C-alpha cells in the first residue's frame, strides 16, 4: 500500500503511504473545495472503506488545492433546507460523517494548508489531531454566524472542548479567522510545519500516536488533553476556573449575552442560539450536545434573517465576477492592470483630501503604487498624514510590522506637479464636487499624460459622469468610481458608465476596485446614480417629517429601530448639511415633480450649520462627539418648539417606502439592471439592514402586492413621490 493511489474522482484522491490512508480533497471543478451533497456522500464511502482496510495505521485528511483546505459546506445546500426538520437532519448527517473520524480506532489527522473554514474546521475538530502549514494563506474559522446560522457540523460542541469556552465563543460569535500562529496558541492545532513537510509529518504522527476518544473527556476540559505541561503552566488560571465550574460558566454566559445584545440590538437570532448550543452542550455528553446543535441549526436555517444573509453572500460572490466581455477584460488587463500589478507604473490620484488620501491608502495597502497629487505641499502633507495614521494604527494593533508600514508608505509618491502623471494609465480624480473644477482637472490630465487612452475615473457622488466626460477629448475613457467615506472602512464602490464609456475603461475600473477588496456595483449614469439618489429621497422625507412637527431624536430612533446603523438626521450631520443640501439640489433639478424639500432647510443652512465638521448641526457636539439635539433648530420650523408625537412605525415606513420606491424606479429606468445590484448597493453603501437582505429582498418578504398597495395609499396622503414604480405593479400581477 506504499504511495499507491487506490481511487480518484474529480474531488477526492486517495493514496496510501506506509499503511496510512491519505485523502486529498481537490475539487477540480471549482476554485475552492466546498462540501456538496455529492462530495459528502463520496467522502462517507471513502472513509468507511479506508477504515475497514486491514492493516491501516492511520488516516490523513488534507488538500493539495493551492490555498484551500476547505471552504466549508457549499452554500447552495442551504437553499434546499426549506424546513426546520430538513435543517436538523442535514446537521445530523454531517455529525454522523464527521463522527467516523472521531470513532476511528486508528489516529485520524487533519493536515491543513490554506483556508479552512466552516465544515472544514468541523471535520478537522472531529479528527484526533490537527496540524497546519505555516503558509500565509492558512486561516481557520467558523463563519456560519455571518450567514445567520450556527456551526452545524459539531463546531459548537467540539471547539469549546478543544480550546476552552471563552476562546471558542470568540471564534463562533464573531466568525473571524485565525492564522497558523494564533491557531497553535489557542490549541486549535498541535503543530505548525512548513507547507512541503505537512503530509509527511501527518503520516509520521499517525504511526506514532494513539487515537483520542473525545467523548470520554470531561465536559469542558477536553482542551487540556492537547496541551503540553509547559502550555498548561502558562494558562490563565482565573479564566480556567471560570470555565470549569457551573457558576463560572453562568458568569461567562451572562456577560456574553450582554455583548450580543449590544452588538446585534436584537435583530439577529443566531448569536443567542449559538451561545445556547455551546453552554447546554458543555454540561452534557458530546452525543447529546450534537443533538442540541442540530435542533438549533434547524431552527435558524429557516429564519428570514438567515435567508437574507445567505442572499447577501450569494450576491457578494456573484459581484466579484467582471461583467464585461472577454475582449474588454483582456484589453484592460494589458493596458492598465498588469502594468500596475507588476509595479511598472502607478495610479494617479488627484486630490489628497479625505477621499483622495483614503483611496491612496487602500491602493497602497493592496500593493498598488499611487502618485498622490494636491494643489500645494500642505495639502499633500495632510493627505500623507492621513495615510500614515492608518498604517500606524494597524502597526499598533500588531496587524503589520514596521517594515510593512514603511513599505506601504513607500508605495505612495507625493507630488504637486501633474507632470509626475506622465506615464500613468489610470487616474482617479477626487476634487471638489463642482463641474467646472472637474472639467479643468480632466483637461490638465489630458495635457500632462502621454498615453491619450489613459482612463479617467471621477469620484463623485452626484454629478452625472456624462457631463464630466463632455469636456474630454476621449469621452470613452471617462468612467465614474463612487467611493464611500471613510474609504478604508466602507466596502462598496459604485462604478458608473455612460453610453460612451468603453467596456475597456469600465473593466479597468472594475478590476482596480476588485483588487482594492471592494464590493462592486456597476450602474448607468444619471443624477445621483443609484446610491446617492435613493439616499437623498430618504433624507428628504426625514426632513419633511421634521418640518411636520416630529422631533430630531424621534426620527433617528425610528430608523435605528428599523435596523439602520444611524438615523437620517444624524447621517446628514455626518455627511455635512451643506454637502447634503447640494446633492439634494442637484437631484431636485432632475426630479422636481417627486423630491420634496422643506423650504426651512435654507434658513438652517444660512446659519452656517454644516454638521459635525464645524460642530454646528441638527445635534450639538462636545469635543467633536455628537451630544444632544440642538433645540434651537426648531425656531426655523413652522411648528417651532411645539413638537408633535409621531408613531415610530409611520416615520420608518415613510422613509423606507420612499427609499424602496426610488430604488425600483432606478431599476425601471435601467440605472441598475438587477434587483441584486440594488440590494448590494443599499446594504454596503448605505447601511440598509443586512438581516432584511436589501430593499428588493425585503419587498419580496413583504410581498410586492402589499408594497404596491401601501405606496398607493401613501401617494394619496403624501404626494406623487410615493406613486408605485412600475416594478412593483408589474411584478405583483
Write out key terms for the chains shown.
733 residues, alpha/beta, 2-enoyl-CoA Hydratase, Chain A, domain 1, Rossmann fold, N-(1-d-carboxylethyl)-l-norvaline Dehydrogenase, domain 2, 3 domains, eight-stranded mixed β-sheet, seven-stranded mixed β-sheet, 30 helices
Overview of this structure, please?
This protein is of the alpha/beta class. The protein has three domains: 4-302, 2-enoyl-CoA Hydratase, Chain A, domain 1, CATH 3.90.226; 326-524, 3-Layer(aba) Sandwich (Rossmann fold), CATH 3.40.50.720; 531-670 and 703-732, Orthogonal Bundle (N-(1-d-carboxylethyl)-l-norvaline Dehydrogenase, domain 2). Strands 14-13-12-15-16-17-18-19 form an eight-stranded mixed beta sheet, with helices on both faces. Strands 1-2-3-4-6-8-11 form a seven-stranded mixed beta sheet, sandwiched between helices. A four-stranded mixed beta sheet has the order 5-7-9-10. The model is unreliable at 213-235 (pLDDT under 50).
